[in-house]
Amino acid sequence: MKKLINQPEDVVSESLQGMAAAHEDLIKVNLDPIFVYRSDAPVQGKVAVISGGGSGHEPTHVGYVGRGMLDAACPGDVFVSPTSEQIIEAIRRVHAGAGVLNIVKCYWDDMDVFAEAAEQAHSEGILCANILIDDDVAVSESVYSHGRRGTGATVLAEKICGAAAEEDFDLTRLADLCRRVNLNGRSMGMAFTACTIPIKGTPTFEIEEDQMELGIGIHGEPGRERMKIKSADEITEMLAVEIIEDPFYKRTIQEWDATKAEWVNVELENQPFQRGDQVLAFVNGMGGTPVPELYIAYRKLEQVCTEKGLTIVRRLIGTYITALEMQGVSITLLRMDDELLKLWDAPVNTPRLRWGI
Amino acid sequence: MKKLINQPEDVVSESLQGMAAAHEDLIKVNLDPIFVYRSDAPVQGKVAVISGGGSGHEPTHVGYVGRGMLDAACPGDVFVSPTSEQIIEAIRRVHAGAGVLNIVKCYWDDMDVFAEAAEQAHSEGILCANILIDDDVAVSESVYSHGRRGTGATVLAEKICGAAAEEDFDLTRLADLCRRVNLNGRSMGMAFTACTIPIKGTPTFEIEEDQMELGIGIHGEPGRERMKIKSADEITEMLAVEIIEDPFYKRTIQEWDATKAEWVNVELENQPFQRGDQVLAFVNGMGGTPVPELYIAYRKLEQVCTEKGLTIVRRLIGTYITALEMQGVSITLLRMDDELLKLWDAPVNTPRLRWGI
Fold first, then answer.
1. Predicted confidence band of residue B26 (pLDDT cuts 50, 70, 90)
2. Domain B11-185+249-268+338-355 superfamily per CATH
3. B23 is catalytic
4. Would you give the DSSP letter of residue B335?
5. Whole-structure pTM over 0.80, yes or no?
6. B residues 182..221 contacting A (CB < 8 A)
């Protein structure tokens, strides 16, 4: 196994110790149970924004803790959800009396542990809103999820909601905002190669030298189709068209209602993209894909968006939500409005996303 | 070949077109001859800072064009030097009457083309100072260079000299500063895997599944030793100790003297690191290594530095100077002083390095 690691079981804790040592002005790491939190938490008067999930998707979520983004991130082992104990401890550490927004990617285990933590927090007098991200248009059922999976829009929701929390949005308004990001964002990815979970030591799946997989998940879970490797332009167009032409999408989910302290059914509706929409274009590397290849994809994405009548008004291009060292790319488009633009542009200072500070 | 590209011969131009489209507020690309330049160039009153070299090391150099760093970058084909025509055209585009600092990595071809460009610029009345970066302690002779190769310190020199140029350092002072960064910086790298030049389509070398190479160059050129894969802590310690204990290093090089407009012999001397030194620690991924692995290396690097009496006062951790999708890491330590600290901390806004703006 060709990895720069010590013992496979120490990968998560050692990398977080290194990250905390490198960015001690921004973050601290709690080792037992393990979570990363803002070094100045709790930030008085502010809703705390928390996310979490399996490790192996770095910089998501641990690299986004800091001013203008997350107050805490709870990492599980590689591709394994964190425990509810990690989350409740993180909540206790960073909440400042104004409640907690939990941003949860749509995977069964993540949803379960965040639900347990929200109920426990309520019993301790801390209001939580758990908002789901389910932006991946590739498949409607998957290995670890019912409904669409949560992928690239999570990073955008963390940035935008983190900025809003700094501007003193209250919990209800912040939960609405996070839901709005999810309902206006759509993603799809592909991969050329598998990845290797350190503790397993062998690739998560086999794929031929001349094959790629369209619609793959960020754990390497199956996508839509294996096919012969296509050109960057063809791949980008396939992903972009699926995203842009994704139809009206309606589903009913259970959401933890912070004020009622009970589970409620919520109807979520994604409106299709329309000519004239302004979008943020997020071209994301899966871990092992060099940045120049992402720019080749962006070049084509801009052409496709123009043909479809969408105007790209902001971009995020780089390696932001990954499947370890997998080679591949995902595209996310987020329909923007003036408020989202302002929050996107707001200063942010985290280990892996920084501007304006 | 598992790459997100169209035709292999279009990789450089298409990725730069994508980068320019994504960052049109920062940069422009000139396609024939090809170079990237600040969209607001020439910046009146400022020395222009230029670098260049083969492609395949991105974000170096093209990702560092913008305010507070480079005025222009000249990329060759993958692992091939640019032509002197590219450089002289870039010089003409960005110089603003205050001269040009060319930051040149120590490889024969890079040195030759920048020398030709400097002489040509002189004949057109434009003063150039060409300053060499030769920071790689791994080997003293290599495939493409006489003397030590230029690697990680190049990124640091571009940031620091870019900041100084914004503060209106004149050309002589800026050349001295760049030389000072080089004389206080030392690097060494390693790799687990080879990389594939798009136009070639096969890996640059063969390496067994259980082997790594210590001291490898950023083109995959041979390092010091092949060996069985070691742990992250062992690898980090080997690299760090070679860097920290590298002895007094003296060499004579030819430097283009801008004011005399002739080649002069310059004696360069690197003083060894000493207990009490303050350093910037740069942990760099070779392209295909995920960021958490770099933090595992940083964790150990901090321990080794502490044992050796060095204090890490700044860090840069990420994928900044690469060999395409190669898996591996390099470490650079740069001895800092108050002036270097201030220039390092100054705002920078480029496609791939940004803070304070």
1. very high
2. Dihydroxyacetone kinase; domain 1 (3.40.50.10440)
3. no
4. E
5. yes
6. 192-193, 209, 212
